[in-house]
Amino acid sequence: MYYSADSPACSDPPADSHRGSVWVCEAGRESASDVAAYVKSLGARALILISSEGQGATIPIRRMNFPGVVLTAQEGSDLISYLNSSSDPSASIVFSKTVLGVSPAPVVAYFSSRGPSQATPGIIKPDISGPGLNIFAAWIPSEDGNSDSPQYFINSGTSMATPHLSGIAAILKAAHPTWSPAAIKSAIVTTADADVSDELLKPAIYFTKGAGNVNPNKAADPGLVYDITDDDYVSYICSKFGKEGARNIARGPVDCSKNVTEAELNYPSILLSPKGRAAVKVSRTVTNVGPARSSYKVSLTISKSTVSATVTPKTLTFTKLNEKKSFSVSAKWATGAPPRTGNPFVEGKLTWTSDDGKHVVTSPLIVSALE
């Protein structure tokens, strides 16, 4: 193996004659294929590329047209220690088989957009996480008619996560034709798997993962949904952008006689911003899409004792399908004032669980100290 501490990104040719067969290069500004082409031109027969520290456990597969493997920064650090301690370091790259269960999952990729949203600070964003890294997907052939253009490709990004979520939404719409887009979103958000890591393999926060990783099977039978009508959205847009802005978005006449704030929007996640010593309260309405006769009890979990929160009522009882019930959530700073230092956000979750335990409806909850 060849590695240069003076040129870790392999941007300069080695001064000595010993160049080795397998080059070890740290990621720089050049793409993996450019690095591979460069080291190949200097006599390398294979490449070990070490990702940057900021990418963490995220390793997007890149076409190199050259034998190569990509390591995380931690794995690369171990490799460099071996290189520095060995008089004749060597390696072999063996293409043998797929090994399952050796990597943590799900993990949010380093390139995934993070919240909070600057445009809608009162709504937790992102909503949800979905598969978007190294997806084997259909690929549009080049317009020049090149027959060598691939029909399938391994790709990463929001453009990969979006069709996964869109497909799940389409399946839910087929299963429940009367559900609105908001009801479908609610089903996806409130049934997500919350156990998700960030790219550094630490527990991901809501502003990184949304409610969690999408679980299509659970979303098909959520029990309760938070529904939002078209008029509710228009009233919200009116309060956000005014009548002219709402008309531009709706592309037609709008009624802005009613305004709905972000806190009042019947969203499946909840963000509260108590001011000073006063408590802040929001209301939510759920629709029963499970068994006609059912009852749900609430549990509220807050990650820090600096926040005091309550839900009223504690139980929701339904007697028919599509029946609606409302509840309120209030929160205040237990110390009497929001914290002035440290993380301004306190996470929690609000969960409605049916008496038979078959339906668990969980809403992400954040209490914010930001003004």
From TrEMBL:
Keyword Signal (UniProt): yes
Keyword Signal: yes
GO biological process: one example: proteolysis
Domain of life of the source: Eukaryota
Domain Subtilisin-like protease fibronectin type-III: 264-367
Keyword entries, A-Z: Signal
Annotated Peptidase S8/S53 domain residues: 98-198
Gene Ontology molecular-function annotations: serine-type endopeptidase activity
Any Pfam family the entry gives: Peptidase_S8
Entry similarity comment: Belongs to the peptidase S8 family.
The protein, known as: Uncharacterized protein
Organism from which the protein derives: Zingiber officinale
